[in-house]
Every structure is written in C-alpha cells, then in structure tokens.
Amino acid sequence: MEDKSSARIKEVKKLLVSNELNLNDFKSKPLKISRCTFDKKVLLNLKRLKVHSQLEKKYLFKEELRKLMFSISEIIDLPVAILELSQFSNYEACHVLVHEKGKPIGQNYLAYRGQSQDAKLISIQSFNSLFNLVKKSKNKIFSQSALLKDDLDVLGNFLAKEIDLKNYSVIYLVSRNSFLPPDSLEQQEFQALSQFLHIALVRILDREKNDLKKEILKQSLEKFPEKISIKKNHNVIFTNNRNDVSAENLNLMIFPLETEENLSMELSNFSKDQVSTELYHSQRVSLLGELLNTLQHELSNPLFGLSLTSTILGSETKNSETAEILGEISQNANRSQTIIKNFSNLYNDNQEFKKIQLSHFIEEVITLTKSETKEILKTLVFEGFLPSENPHDLYITTNPTCLTQIIFNLVINAAQAIKENGLDRNKSSIKILVTKKAQCVSIAVIDNGPGIANELTSTIFKPFFTTKDSGTGLGLAICQNLAHQLGSKIDFKNNSPLLGATFWIDLPS
Amino acid sequence: MKKILLIEDEPLIQKSLKKLLEKKGAEVTVESRGRDAIGLILNQEFDRIICDLMLQDISGFDVIEESKKRYTTNDISKLFIIITAYSSPHVIEKATQYGCLLLSKPFENIDEALSIFLSEGGKLGTN
Predict the structure, then answer these.
(1) Cross-chain residue pair B85–A337, CB shorter than 8 Å
(2) Are A337 and A303 in contact (CB under 8 A)?
(3) Percent of chain A scored above 70 by pLDDT?
(4) What is the reported pTM?
(5) Of the four listed, A370, A408, B63, B65, which is most buried by Cβ atoms within 10 Å?
(6) CATH class of the domain at A31-218
(7) Smallest Cβ distance to B105: which of A304, A306, A309?
(8) pLDDT, tens only, A390-418
(9) What ranges do the domains of chain A cover?
C-alpha cells in the first residue's frame, strides 16, 4: 500500500463526517413534495413579492405550470420543460444558467426547440455580468446585442430573469429569432414562472449536490483497496465487497469519526508489511487525538475552577503567605491547562501553517517531553545570530503540529538512546541547537548517547526498523514524512570526537 | 438589579462566578442540575441565564429546549449565554442555531466575560 492511502483515508473520513449524508441509503430519494405544500409555498412567495392578486390566482392554479414542476427531477430537463409551456410556444430556445456560489465555473443548461437538451460550462465572468445586467433591468427584456460575451448563443430577443438562492445564483432565459419584442402578457407569465422555479430549484439543486457527494463517497468506499466497513453504534452500515484474506494476516484499524452519532470506520484485510508508515501514523494520531481531546475537556473544567477560585481567594486574603500560595495554585492550574492543551495539539490533524515564535515554541515542546527526559540536562542554544539580534525575536512560518511532533520525537529518541547506554546523571545531556543560516533556520537535537552504529545508518528511517524492545519502528519514519510535509528533510550524523548523535532539520526562514 | 441564573455543575466555577457577579451588583441564583434549572426558568423571572453544556443529568441544550415552553426563540437568543469547555465545531453550530452567545471555558479574560454576562442583551422586550 502506498502512502496515498493516508490521503485517501482522510478524504473518506472528511466525506463521512459531513453529516448531511445518509449512509444507509446511497440512492437518491425522489423529489417528494405534496401539492398542498407546494401551492402554499408558491402563494407565500408571491405574497412576499407583492405580485398582483389576480396574477397570483391565475398562475397558481394554472395546471400546466404545476405539472411542469412535478415532472422535472433534474435541472438538465428544465429548459425543455419550459419550452413546452404553451405561453412560450413562440420561443425557440431556453437557457438555465446555474452558478453554485463560491465555485469557479457555472453551468449552462440549454435546449433549442425540437432538439435534445444540452449542458455546457459558462465562465464566472460571463455569468456575473449577465446576472447583474438581468438584475438591474426592470422589464427583463433584452436583445442579443446586450450580450457582449459570446459564450451564450441566444437568439434575437430574449426574456431573462435572475433567481438568487442561498447557495446558488440562477438565471433563466427564453429567446427567439425575431425582431418583435416580447409582449406584456408573455412578460408577466415569464415573471410569474420564477415563483414556481424558485421552489423547484432549491429542491433539485440541493438534492443534485447531495447526490454528487454521495456518489463520490460511494465510489471512494467501494474502490478502496482494503476491506472497509462503516459502523454506527457497532452495527455495520456499509461495507465494500473485498474478499477476506487468511486470518493470520488480518489487521484491523479503527478510526473514530467525529460526528454526532457513534460512527466509526474500520479497515481490515491488509497484512502488516503492506501498511505504510503514514497509515499507522494517521491512526495513531486519530486515536490519541480523540483520547487527549476528551482528557483536555474533562480536565479543563476543574482546572478552570481551581484557577478562578484561588485567584479570587488570593485577592481577598490579608495574609501574604496565604496569598502567595493561592497565587501558585492558580499558576499551576493554568500551567496544567496549557500542557494538556499542547498535548492535544500534538495529535491533531491540523494542516495549517502559522507564524510561531521559535524559542518559545521549542520550550513548550521540551515541557511535553519532561517525563521521558527527567534527570537529563536539556539546553536550548542559539548560534549564527548577530550580537544585535535577539534569538527570541525569531519567528518562522510552519505547520506547528508537524514541527512539534518532529522535535518531540527526536528529543524522546535522544533520551531513550541515552538511557539505553546507562544514564549518568552528571554527564547526560540533550542540546537543542537553533542555528540561523542565510536561507534557513536549522534545528538540531544533539545527544551524548551511544550514537548510531555504522551498519544501521542506511536503515534507521525505514518503517518498522527498531533497535528497541518495545518500539514500533515508526518514530523516525513518521518524522521524515512530517519533515517532507514541511518541505524539508531530517538528516543525522554521529558526533565526533565526542559520542552521541545529532539529528537536524533545516526550515526555510 | 440584574437577576442572573447560573447553571454550572463544577462547584468551584459555580462559587467563583457567583461571587464575582455579586460583586458587580447582580443577584445570582445558582443551580447544578439541569432539571431543577428548568423548573426555575419556567417559574421565575431572570434577566440572564448562564448555562453550562455538560451538566450531570441533562445537557444545556436540553435546558434551552425546555425553556421554549415559556420563551420565544428570539427571547432565548438574548436571554441565554452558553459556557462550555467542549467547544467542538458541532457544539458551536448548535449554539448558533439558537442564536445564543457561546463562551469557552477557560475564559481568556475574566473581566470581559463578566461584562458580557452583565450586558443588556438579556433584557426582554427591548425590541
């Protein structure tokens, strides 16, 4: 399995989490709308726009119009259906232009009388200029010359109206190759049509979008190379049809999905050596992230209570010793809050690049490694700065989550190497060296452990390679992957003449 | 004087906020259980209701839902302020549906939080 799998899992997860999807049913539901509610809605629409009451009745009870609304289920059928209306029998072409807000391109659905329907793309510039033109016009009558852009092939004179929906902008227009401008009756009927279209469009467009999403999800799940099942409250609600392989190779991964319901995604059917580093990493981040998230929220409340109460009591007491102690309680509660928050940041899926103050950032990471590195001296050293420059003013733009994980892992590795060699409280040290260079900033983690044995130098970044009894062999492989995400890589060398190893990453400054 | 109902089940937060709000001149009733809070909301007058989401018996959203028996959605959006340590996107979206203000715990600035609690938004019938 390639590293692509992780991206694929992320994609599938994202789709699953978007909660509009109903996994139980991949088929789209037919448009169901009762006549009664439909009439009500049309009336409401008409009222809101204060259309003349006679017109209301006239169009509301026009069976032909209502029929049209019930007969179409896809937007592509709409132009033909409009042309079939008797009041537009003099028109030869109908266009329905749809732009989903925020998308870089619009759709142009069109039909010429006697020909089948068609769909084309329309540039957003053309769409917008036409939309504004139509919106500003009072009588909604235009001639072909009004259109400067020629990616719309309308004929002669045309009637057009815009409909502004929540997520879509729509223009519909009918045209005919004649010099006679549309008469006022045609104009009225055309305007009234928008009330019917408004309701139908909302339903059709939203459903079509949902269908598309479902289709993508369904295909991604079905084409997934491994067996995948989606469970809701421990019941399987979806599974793709991959054959089971022999049980000894079977591996199971469970990804919880952060939705309202108890959804989880299970991957199985692959053997261990197929699994990529990133996939393991992705699962680890997912599970640990979940755990830490819960922990953060559960601890957050009592810690906040502690901090708040001790601050208030501290400000009220007259005994200075008590005040000092209460101040320390408050500080410690805040510090615990920060640590648990940093830990949950360490295991989130965040892809965002941010500007960070590097020295403070590294200090925070060192705090996280405290339990693994206790009794080892840790120092943060800066090099390459001019005497006038303060290293604490150094900011870099990076993905903080990735960088935290890299430094965290390298420091933990360094501590473990030192301990394996026999910890000497007086001599053991981990130095984190930040060097400012011309084009980049280098962060190095230097330990004085045993160093890397020569025969291992080519394998240490390989997944599942480990020298530790309890190791997964993924730490460095994950770090290297993360470094690639930051557009960099991790290098290492053995220290000389002193013992130990140095691992470093160069980041663009 | 502003009458405030504070629904919060963490005793230290409850006591501290009560104290701080009283210092600012508010009259504060506290309640830890959601079901008891509903009784208070339906039978007493408050200018502001500060409600935690994760209560021991029911959720803060359940409290708001029950309050609909007495208040309109417009009233609710002004009357209630939600405080929570669990501000996931899902929670934020739900709070937005009710139109209520949402403050995440820990408050970054306690004075700011207090002035939001004591703001005029809670007074009904102002529009």
Answers:
(1) no
(2) yes
(3) 71
(4) 0.49
(5) B63
(6) alpha beta
(7) A304
(8) 999 999 988 888 898 899 989 999 998 88
(9) 31-218, 277-346, 354-508
